Amino acid sequence: MGKHLVICGHGQGRTGYDPGAVNAKLGITEAGKVRELAKLMSKYSGQQIDFITEQNVYDYRSITSIGKGYASITELHFNAFNGSAKGTEVLIQSSLEADKEDVAILSLLSRYFQNRGIKKVDWLYNANQAASRGYTYRLVEIAFIDNEQDMAIFENKKEDIARGPCISNNRS
After folding, report:
1. CATH superfamily of 4-163
2. In 10 A of CB 100, how many CB atoms?
3. In the chain, what are the domain boundaries?
4. Is residue 99 left, alpha or beta, with left meaning phi > 0 and alpha meaning psi from -120 to 50?
């Protein structure tokens, strides 16, 4: 089993900071929350996971250069819609089938959040670029940042999510 890469979605780009989805009521941003989770994950992941927290990989178009040599790449995000949508989902490139890691990550997060499934998409730049290079890539929508229930669960369970055997690759 090789080393894994976790990318935090949004954040510092070439020309500015992209907060991603925002929950103004709670005063939180997607970029901030995924970095908070990555920091917690790093406590439990040992040397098997590298983290990209300081740049917006999409904005820099750097997935092809930074992803080389990893057993898998997981990009962390929070979803947003209308305040009432909720749940977790894993997005993979449309030409691929879900692998064990995709299923395991969704299974872990579905302990806490409504399971919205594994979705095949053809519109994600990073997923398309990774697939074209043969990289194993997924984008994980942890929960809905604009849903108060999802975010209350996240706040109460974030240590468990970070420690989880799938998302943190801590297979104990």
Report:
1. Zn-dependent exopeptidases (3.40.630.40)
2. 8
3. 4-163
4. beta
pLDDT at 50 over 50: yes
Structure tokens that stand for 126 in this block: 């990073």
Whether the model pTM is above 0.90 = yes
**Distance of alpha carbon 130 from alpha carbon 158, whole angstroms:** 28
The model's pLDDT over 99-122, given as tens digits with 9 standing for 90+, comes to: 999 999 999 999 999 999 999 999
Q: What is the mean pLDDT of the chain?
A: 93
d(CA 14, CA 12): 7
Confidence of residue 168 (pLDDT cuts 50, 70, 90): very low
